[in-house]
Amino acid sequence: MQRNVITDFGAAADGTVCTPSIQKAIDLCEKGGTVYVPAGTFVTGALYLKSDMTLYLEEGARLLGSGNLADFPLMGYPFEGYDQLCYASLLNTDGAPYRNIAIEGKGTIDANGEALFLAEMEEKKGKRGRAVCIRNTDGVTIRGVRIRQSPSWCLHLLYCRNVLIERVEVHTKYDENGRRYAHIFNGDGIDLDSCQNVRVTKSLIASQDDCIAVKSGRDAAGRRAGIPSRDIVIEDCSFQSGFGVAMGSEMSGGVENVTVRDCVFENTHSIASIKAIRGRGSYIRNIRYENCSLINRDTQIMDTKWFRGALYADAYYGEEDFDPDRKVAVDETTPVVENICLKDITVDTIAGNAVYLCGLPEMPYRNFRLENVKAHGKYGMKVKNMENLQLINVDVTGEED
CA neighbours within 13 Å on the CB side: how many for 389? Predict the structure, then answer.
C-alpha cells in the first residue's frame, strides 16, 4: 500500500507551519494508503481527512496546532446540539459522507488549546473548535494515539457509524507533567454525537468535563434530525479527572443500548450521569453500567446545578431553582428515561451525593435497577419522581444527612 511520508512533501519539524505540505500528502494518498508522520513536532493548522486512508503517527511524532486563528477557518456544523459556526478543528472531515478513516500510531495530536481558546474567545466569530472532529463517516478507527489540549471538546464524532476507539489517551485538563491547562472549560474527552455501533476499549480519559458524553442533538432540531446514539460499548477503560460517562444532556434524537463495563474511575466526580430535561423530548433507555469502581478525593466540585453525585440521573440538570412537584403538560418535548441498570458498582467519594435520582413529576424516570451497589459520599441517596425503582443489595452511606 502507498505510504506518503509528510516530510517528502515538504513538512519540517522546525517550528514552521506546514499545513499545505501535510494536506498535500493527504490529498494525494491513494485508496487504502497511509499518511505517515515521523518523529518530531510538526506545526499545522486545520487538516481535512478523506475516505479510505490511515493517518499514522510514529512514536515521538506530534501534530501541534499553530495557535493562529487564520489557520482554522470557520465551518458550519452541529455543536452542543445546534447548527452553528465553529472554528475548524485540528483534524476534520468536511461533512460529506466518508468511509474507512483511521488515525493510528503512538504519537500525539496536540490542538494547542490554550492559545486557540484565548484567540477564539476574543474574536468570537464561531464556537471553539475541537482537537479532532470526524463527521458522517462509516468506519472510524482511532487506535494508540494521544489526543490532548483541545480548546473545547477533544474528540468529537458526529453522525458516525461502526467506530472503534482503542488504547487511546485523551487529556483535556492537565499536561503530562500535571500542569492545569489554562482557561479551557467545557473540555469533554470524547463526545459520541448521534453515533451508532461504537466500541471504546482499553483507553484512558483525563477530562476537564465529561470524560465520555453520549449525545444526539438538542430540542426541536435534534428531534427533527432524529438520529439516535445507540449500540455503544465502553469497556476496560480508565478515567482520571472529570465527570465520568454521561448520557445527554443533548439527547433529543434518542440514546439507547449503551453499556459501560469493567471501568475504573479515579478522582472523577461521577461514574454515571443521565441528563434529560424538559424541552429535549425523545428518550434515554436501555443503559447499563456494570462492574465499575470510583475513588474520588477531588473537592473542586461538590453539589451544583451541573453535578449531583457519583451516580445520578437529573431531570433538572442546569437549573438553579426548581420545584420537583410542579407538573407540566406532557408533549413531544417531554423526555422519557427508562430501563437503567447499575450493577456491581463501588463508590467512595467526598464530593456530592453518593446516589441522586430525580425524574419529572409528569414523567417519572422509570425502571431503574441498582444491584450490588456500595456507595459512600458526602451525602447518601436522594430520590424523587421515580417509578419502579429496584434496590437489590444496595448499601449507601453519607458523611452528612
Answer: 17
pTM of the predicted model as reported, rounded to 2 decimal places: 0.97
Longest dimension (CA), the chain: 67
CA-CA distance, 198 to 257, in Å (whole number)?
Answer: 11
Let me know how long the chain is.
401
Beta-carbon contacts of 323 under 8 Å, excluding residues fewer than 6 positions away, are none
Please state the φ and ψ torsions of residue 365, each to the nearest 5 degrees: -65, 135
pLDDT tens, position by position, 49-93: 999 999 999 999 999 999 999 999 999 999 998 899 999 999 999
pLDDT computed for residue 109 by the predictor:
98
**pLDDT > 70 in the chain, percent:** 100
CATH assignment of the domain containing 275: 2.160.20.10
In this predicted model, what pLDDT tens digit does every residue of 254-264 receive, in sequence order?
999 999 999 99
Work out how many domains the chain is built from and give that number.
1
Domain with 256 in it: 93-398
Decide if 153 contacts 188 (C-beta within 8 A).
yes
d(CA 273, CA 243): 8
Burial class of residue 70 (count of CB atoms within 10 Å of its CB; 0-12, 13-18, 19+): exposed
Provide the pLDDT for residue 183.
83
Amino acid sitting at position 255: V
SS3 of 67, please?
coil
